[in-house]
Amino acid sequence: MQRLEAKRVNGHTYYYLSDWGWREGKCRRLSQQYLGKLEHFSSRLTGAGPTPAYAEVFELGRPLALWSAVQRAELIPLADQLCPKRQQGLSPGTYLALAALNRAMQPVSKRGFWDWLAGTVLVRALPELCAEALSSQRFWDHLAGWEPEKIRALWKGLLERAVPREGIDLSRLCYDGTNFYTFIDTFNVHNHLAQRGKNKQGRANLRQVSYALVCAARGQWPLYYEVYEGHRNDSRQFGEMLGRFATFYAGLAPAGTPLPKTTLVFDKGNNSAANFALIDALGLDYVGAVKLGEVAEWAGVSNTRDARWEACPGLEGTKAFRVEAQVYGRPRTLVVSWHQGLFEAQWATVQIELARALRKLGELQQSLERRHQGEVKGGKAPTCESVQKQCREILHREHLSQVVATEVAGCDSGVPGLNYQVQPEGLERLRDTVLGKNVLVTSHGGWTETAVIEAYRSQFLIEEIFQQMKDRDVGCWWPMFHWTDRMIQMHGLYCTIALLLRAMVGRRVREAGVELSLPRLWAELEQVREVVNVYEGQDTRKPPVRQTVWSKLTALQERLVVVLGLRGEKRSV
């Protein structure tokens, strides 16, 4: 039985909620709860609860999912084993784990590190965390001393554990390279990695850093990577990296356990006779593509009239045939394929480029005509050579020189003239031979055409990784405010670890039957938050009361919380 009891102390009335019951044959007070003065708890009696003084909101979904992946990957103990802890601050493994987690979640500069972490539930995971411990100086005090050998050893240790634990499928691997522009000053001599080259985002005016990656075709698991000079071309890097990758790959298997036979898929930009000779020497199976100019005989096959074309089962709009041909120093299996979607995209591109080129040629023709009529007299007078050079520049885009004929006339009169014309037969020949066509090369002579084409098309998976790395919403590479080679190499390490952590989270979600793209998964987890209502009492000597609740979840978010075990992770944090 419960009673509301009042007690008079020093002229003030205090209330208690008492619980009475029988004990040893007598009615006794079993327990009591202090309620305070009437005005302190009267709102509870009327149904209106106290109003919190303020609320604190912490991101919960992504941090806990990634922190669970960090622990499962054994990242911190592995890193601490390679690089012992200094006398102050967190351990090197903790710094590295937090850097990788930030890159996988919401990349910020090292100066903004504490502000970012303080907005997540992870701020309570490590009691020693503070703004001073996470300053940029403390971060590099612990990580700047990592030699390339330690970086490679850590990555190998992570993969040796991840391959059997995560069940990574190694039967098909994709290779590709990309580059990231930087804002490193032209005259900065503290590194040789940042160099000017052909930037894939059109920022050739800036120094860039190149990045090559081998990933598993299923699950987009990063397996091997290298950060290298921005001016090194793809073919040269591929040849230099192949041997190191083969050694790394062979070392992934535990002693006495053979690794499965794998197939390396790569793009035509990596081709050279020396590279294929190295692939043959290493005994690697492969699927690649050959530039059409190197196999003119098969590039010139009609897309509509040749009898060898056969539809590929399971690949809509695709037809192919195979041949044996001498390519890169030895007979190899070639699969000549044509795809309707590729043809339509390339044909639309040709039309756009052709219209742009014809407009520029028309403008050049009018300019020459105005000078011939005396309307333009100043400036450097055009010559036949200068006009021909301008025409070559206008028609430099692929295939344009095959469909547009130009003629520079009247050179003897002083002012050259320009005539140009679209060649219908050249345009039709382009439509019927080159457009929509790929010539693939493979060591798998026993595979069907469909299997070879599907393997080559899996190359889009690594291109998707690069797109995500460069994305301003879910990307992991930028911002990069580093200017020395060692810092840039360390940056490459924790960005690649971020890819590994994302793949681990994605695997758990996919295994539960939830198919989501990374941007969608990250957007849903970002909305899973922890809200802490803070109630301040009148007694300033006592700490405020904190009430923790979760944000309201949708059905999909609740499913992700269950799949990733975030409620259990919340208790452990």
What would you say this structure looks like, in words?
With 573 residues, the chain is an alpha+beta fold. It has 5 domains: 2-49, no CATH class; 65-145, no CATH class; 149-290 and 450-501, Ribonuclease H-like superfamily/Ribonuclease H (Nucleotidyltransferase, domain 5); 343-433, no CATH class; 523-572, no CATH class. It contains 20 helices and 17 strands. The strands form 4 sheets. It has a 9-stranded mixed sheet, with helices on both faces. Strands 1-2-3 form a 3-stranded antiparallel sheet. A 3-stranded antiparallel sheet has the order 4-16-17. The longest helix has 33 residues, at 340-372.
Write the layout of secondary structure elements.
Blueprint: E1 2-9, E2 12-23, E3 26-36, H1 38-45, E4 54-59, H2 61-73, H3 75-82, H4 92-105, H5 113-117, H6 136-143, H7 148-166, E5 172-181, E6 208-216, E7 222-229, H8 234-250, E8 263-265, H9 273-282, E9 285-290, H10 296-299, E10 310-311, E11 318-327, E12 330-339, H11 340-372, H12 384-394, H13 400-403, E13 404-409, E14 417-422, H14 424-433, E15 437-442, H15 449-457, H16 460-470, H17 485-511, H18 518-526, E16 529-535, E17 545-550, H19 555-563, H20 566-572
Parallel strand pairs: 5-8, 8-9
Antiparallel strand pairs: 1-2, 2-3, 4-16, 5-6, 6-7, 9-15, 10-11, 11-12, 12-15, 13-14, 16-17
Helix pairs in contact: 2-4, 2-17, 3-4, 3-7, 4-17, 7-17, 8-9
CA-CA gap between termini: 39 Å
Strand arrangement across the biggest beta sheet: 7-6-5-8-9-15-12-11-10
User: Number of helical segments?
Assistant: 20
The number of distinct structural domains comes to 5
How is the main sheet built?
9 strands, mixed
Q: Work out the number of β strands.
A: 17
Instruction: Note the beta-strand portion.
Output: 15-25%
Uncertain segments are: none
Query: In percent, how helical is the residue content?
Result: 40-55%
The radius of gyration over CA amounts to: 33 Å
CATH topology of the largest domain: Nucleotidyltransferase, domain 5
Oligomer: single chain
Overall geometry comes to: elongated
Mean pLDDT: 89
The CATH class of the largest domain: Alpha Beta
CATH homologous superfamily identity of the largest domain: Ribonuclease H-like superfamily/Ribonuclease H
Tell me which CATH architecture of the largest domain applies here. Answer: 2-Layer Sandwich
State the secondary-structure class. alpha+beta
